[in-house]
Amino acid sequence: MDLQNLKIKNSKAISPVIGTILMVAITIVISGVAIAVLYGFLTNPTRGYTVTFQLVDQKPDDFTLLFYGGPDIEYVEGVKIMVNNVVYVDYSGSLSVGDQWYFKDGEYVDGKGNTSQIVSLSPGKNDDHLIVVVKFPNNLETVMVDTYV
Asked: Among residues 83, 63, 72, 85, which one has the least CA distance to residue 134?
């Protein structure tokens, strides 16, 4: 019996076993990836809401923010209004079409939910960063306005 032939027979016997193990491992990995992708597609997306605000009577040292409502007005649970990262309005409750907030430099905000902060606006138009965040069910908060006044 030749020693060289013996080595060849052993190496051929090992190759199919390793190949089978590798194919099973690859199949398991691909199945795991497929399940992860499908699970991501099957989760329920977060519901989007639509309501509208509009800036009216904008001047260099004051402006009015008007709530116009929208198709999802019944879902509104509150509003937070910030100018230059200062919260001037933090209101929890429903809003009605026509609700408005009047911001004037050096005065308190006139409207629902004012936080008793005196408004500080920069002189000149479009210098102040206005952000309006609306609160909806399930602790969902959505930025509805992000602009400069």
From this structure: 72
The CATH superfamily of 52-148 is: Immunoglobulins (2.60.40.10)
Q: What's the token pair of residue 53?
A: 């605000």
Q: How far apart are CA 91 and CA 42, in angstroms?
A: 35
Predicted TM-score (pTM) of this structure: 0.69
Q: What is the pLDDT of residue 6?
A: 53
